[in-house]
Write a sequence for this structure.
């Protein structure tokens, strides 16, 4: 029975590590998306940093990516940037790839 218990613990540990990694990737992706949007809004470096943190925080409002997309799209539109939801979703997808790449380099 010990082998079975060891395997169960190993699977549980892997599940926890994978969940933590996905959380980190999501946070990094949101930060990168915030930096992308800040570039379009022509924010200063200090404003860019604060905005990127605000985008990361926006992800805690509800499950999924809609809260982040809504925030970024609304902020870009309010700043007079010609953008639509599809462009923000494309940027989100691109930043997901970049965030995964960066996290793999850190490992």
């Amino acid at each position: 029975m010990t082998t079975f218990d060891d395997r169960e613990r190993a699977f549980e540990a892997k599940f926890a590590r994978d969940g933590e990694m996905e959380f980190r990737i999501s946070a990094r992706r949101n930060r990168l998306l915030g930096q992308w949007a800040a570039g379009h809004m022509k924010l200063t470096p200090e404003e860019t940093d604060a905005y990127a943190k605000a985008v990361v925080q926006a992800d805690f409002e509800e499950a999924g990516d809609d809260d982040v997309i809504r925030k970024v799209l609304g902020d870009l539109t309010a700043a007079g940037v010609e953008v639509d939801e599809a462009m923000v979703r494309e940027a989100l997808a691109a930043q997901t790839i970049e965030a995964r790449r960066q996290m793999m380099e850190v490992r």
About this structure: DSSP finds four helices and no strands in the chain. Residues 77 and 84 are 8 Å apart (CA to CA).
